[in-house]
Amino acid sequence: MNNGALGIFDSGVGGLTVVRAVQELLPQESIVYLGDTARVPYGSKSPETIRRFSDEDVRHLLRHDVKAIVVACNTATAHALPQLQQQYRVPIVGVIEAGVESVLSDPHCQRVGIIATRGTIASHAYQHALALRRTGLRIIEQPTPLLVPLVEENWLNHAATKLILQSYLTPMIEKGIDTLLLACTHYPLLVPVLQEILGSGVRIVDSATTCAEHLRRELTRLDLLAERDSAGTLEIGLTDLSDQFEELAGRFLHRVPPRISRVEL
Ligand code: DGL
């Protein structure tokens, strides 16, 4: 048992989808969230830059004495997680392992589509992790760089979004995918429109929810779960503050966010 806070970081406010999932599953946990809004997006940056930024994010959270760290950003997990885990003693979990486990929890899944930022797709981290655990799996990867701005504009049900999704997804649909893995913080907000396009025969796996479940297993295994009668607290720190981020944070969190402070890395 450990009542210390969890540290969760992302390139911006999209990682609040992971915070929301963690708060739903583990309400007693306190969370210190860092969103690197001054340098978002990570999805179009080089692996070296993503690793450097992620290292600075971890150092910031460690100054808050967190008991474990969640890399909520798929791009940062894809490029920086192994290095971070090697470098620091604090337990660090990412979103990839959880997403992969969730895909493979269906023994009948055979054809998996993966959508993510350019950086995540270029790393092939999800593809490698899936192929390592199950042979014979057909994996179709698709970078979908237009989706983050569309979600941030709140064009969740807009005709343009549907058109773009159709264009991204048609090759996967033609190849008969049975599962679509959402490998980006922002995409859980697109689940209704995605399900409408894909139909009920395709299972959608969202890495935010699966990450919270994975985290619970890890905290249980390491005996780090919080034990308190009341709900844990949430502190949000962003490296750049603008009205837009406050409003966006509320949409990812599904409620009015607590006071947001600006932090220096
Ligand atoms: N958080 C990023 C991810 O999950 C998306 C936004 C960005 O490109 O930084 O990959």
What does this protein structure show overall?
The protein starts with 5 loop residues before the first strand and ends with a strand. The chain has helices spanning 16-25, 47-62, 74-87, 96-104, 118-123, 125-133, 147-152, 159-174, 191-198, 207-221, 243-253, and strands at residues 6-10, 31-35, 68-71, 92-93, 111-116, 138-143, 179-182, 203-206, 234-238, 260-262. Helix 2 packs across helix 3 (74-87), helix 4 (96-104) packs across helix 6 and helix 4 (96-104) crosses helix 10 (207-221). With 265 residues, the chain is an alpha/beta fold. The model has no long low-confidence stretch (mean pLDDT 95). The protein folds into two domains: 6-94 and 209-262, Rossmann fold (3-Layer(aba) Sandwich), CATH 3.40.50; 97-207, Rossmann fold, CATH 3.40.50. Strand 3, helix 3 and strand 4 form a beta-alpha-beta unit. The strands form two sheets. Strands 4-3-1-2-9-10 form a six-stranded parallel sheet, sandwiched between helices. It has a four-stranded parallel sheet with strand order 6-5-7-8, with helices on both faces. The chain is built from eleven helices and ten strands. It is 45% helix and 17% strand. Bound molecules: D-glutamic acid (DGL). D-glutamic acid is lined by residues 10-12, 14, 40-43, 73-75, 117, 120, 148, 184-186.
